[in-house]
């Protein structure tokens, strides 16, 4: 399994654990709106990790002279080259099968919902709504469908409901559309697809979807009176036993969170105006997890890996045969530093492709010079990455 996947799994697991453990406390202190939005930090994690890695690559590249075949050295490289397909091991094959199944499920649900939308009939109500409202016999619970062309799908007998109940349902689905929940759900499923083997990711996804409904209830009932909230609760009960039709749509009725949703309506509190603070907190969670993630991946055995920076670093030669075939890779080392700052006891702990760059990288590393510290430092780690200039690959 590639270092990139392991890196993402560590970061997502750590952040998901924190959010799940603090969920009840966050509900009391921050309210449902901010608690729900904190889940966005999980979606930010892969992007923030990639941005940090890209920044490291840019800084490393800009600090070195241009060469036809160049290498880049990364101290504490966060993620190695993606090797998921190399060798196609049994483990990577199982992983790809799982990802494919998750994506196929998403695609299948999308096709099914598209057919429902095409075959649905207009639903005539006594009030107007900014989105099309259609009915279909296969729809058991009202839902919002369509990321780019949204519409509200309702059961065939929806028009028989009392008008106030109809308004409650439509207002709920409109709030989903205004908040962009369908796009969030799609992104969350894609992230879950990458982490289908991770039980913490499944727990976080389920809690994310539940919090989404709670936050939408709070939005929809902000200006409602106590009597209107009672009507809203009764409508929730009416659709509570209906199963979720698709992972891509919203779901008005949800028996698993019914009690929690009704209790929230009884204890409804305004969520205030602290969006800037919440955005900063969410971004900080994502970036912090990415940075912590990088540190874990860079070194799992030595706390002194960044304690010393070389004062003289010799660049290894790019093997001619590797350059001709446009082969890239890396070599990871453990080594000791003498009291005088010389590199000694160099050991290769990992190389990809195996043996391709070992000799040149070892020759170069043995010539590195560190500041004299007066004490020997053992088991330092470094990874030398051999990569061609982008122009050389085109």
- Weakly predicted, low-confidence segments: 59-88, 293-307
Q: What multimeric state do the chains show?
A: single chain
Overall mean pLDDT stands at: 75
Q: Bin the helical content.
A: 40-55%
Biggest beta-sheet profile: 4 strands, antiparallel
Distance N to C terminus: 28 Å
Please report the total strand number as a whole number. Answer: 8
How many discrete structural domains? 2
Instruction: Please indicate the percent range of residues in DSSP E strands (runs of 2 or more).
Output: 5-15%
The tally of helices reads 14
| Main β-sheet, spatial strand arrangement | 1-8-6-7
Structural class per helix/strand content?
alpha+beta
Order of secondary-structure elements: HHHHEHEEEEHHHHHHHEEHEH
Coarse shape? elongated
Computed Rg: 27 Å
How would you describe the overall organization of this protein?
By secondary structure, the protein is an alpha+beta fold. It folds into two domains: 3-70 and 79-292, no CATH class; 320-393, TolA/TonB C-terminal domain (2-Layer Sandwich), CATH 3.30.2420. Helices cover 51% and strands 11% of the residues. The chain has 14 helices and eight strands. Strands 1-8-6-7 form a four-stranded antiparallel beta sheet. The protein has a four-stranded mixed beta sheet with strand order 2-3-5-4, sandwiched between helices. A hairpin with a 5-residue loop joins strand 6 (329-337) and strand 7. Helix 4 (40-62) crosses helix 11 (275-298), helix 6 packs across helix 8 and helix 9 (226-238) runs antiparallel to helix 10 (258-266). The radius of gyration is 27 Å and the shape is elongated. The protein starts with a helix and ends with a helix. Residues 59-88 and 293-307 have low confidence and may be disordered.
């Amino acid at each position: 399994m590639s270092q990139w996947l392991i890196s993402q799994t560590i970061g997502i697991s750590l952040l998901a654990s924190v959010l799940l453990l603090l969920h009840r406390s966050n509900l009391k202190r921050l309210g449902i709106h901010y608690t729900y939005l904190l889940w966005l930090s999980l979606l930010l994690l892969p992007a923030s990790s990639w941005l940090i890695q890209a920044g490291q690559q840019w800084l490393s590249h800009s600090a070195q002279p241009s060469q036809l075949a160049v290498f880049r050295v990364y101290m504490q490289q966060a993620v190695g080259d993606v090797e998921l397909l190399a060798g196609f091991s049994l483990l990577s094959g199982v992983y790809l099968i799982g990802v494919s199944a998750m994506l196929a499920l998403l695609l299948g649900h999308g096709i099914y919902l598209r057919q429902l939308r095409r075959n649905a009939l207009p639903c005539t109500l006594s009030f107007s709504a900014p989105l099309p409202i259609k009915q279909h016999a296969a729809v058991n619970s009202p839902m919002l469908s369509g990321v780019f062309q949204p519409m509200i799908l309702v059961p065939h007998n929806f028009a028989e409901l009392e008008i106030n109940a109809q308004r409650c349902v439509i207002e709920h689905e409109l709030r989903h559309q205004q908040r962009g929940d369908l796009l969030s759900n799609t992104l969350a499923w894609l992230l879950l697809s990458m982490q289908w083997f991770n039980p913490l990711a499944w727990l976080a996804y389920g809690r994310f979807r539940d919090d989404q409904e709670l936050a939408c209830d709070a939005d929809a009932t902000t200006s409602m009176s106590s009597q209107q909230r009672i009507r809203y609760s009764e409508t929730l009960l009416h659709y509570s036993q209906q199963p979720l039709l698709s992972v891509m749509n919203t779901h008005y009725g949800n028996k698993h969170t019914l009690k929690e949703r009704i209790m929230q309506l009884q204890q409804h509190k305004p969520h205030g105006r602290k969006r800037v603070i919440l955005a900063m907190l969410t971004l900080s969670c994502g970036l912090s997890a990415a940075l912590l993630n990088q540190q874990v991946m860079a070194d799992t055995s030595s706390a002194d890996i960044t304690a010393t920076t070389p004062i003289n670093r010799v660049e290894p030669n790019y093997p001619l045969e590797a350059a001709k075939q446009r082969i890239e890779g890396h070599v990871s080392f453990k080594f000791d530093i003498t009291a005088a700052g010389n590199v000694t006891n160099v050991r290769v702990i990992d190389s990809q492709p195996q043996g391709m760059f070992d000799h040149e990288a070892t020759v170069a590393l043995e010539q590195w010079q560190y500041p004299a510290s007066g004490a020997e430092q053992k088991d330092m780690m470094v990874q030398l990455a051999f990569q061609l200039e982008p122009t050389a690959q085109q």
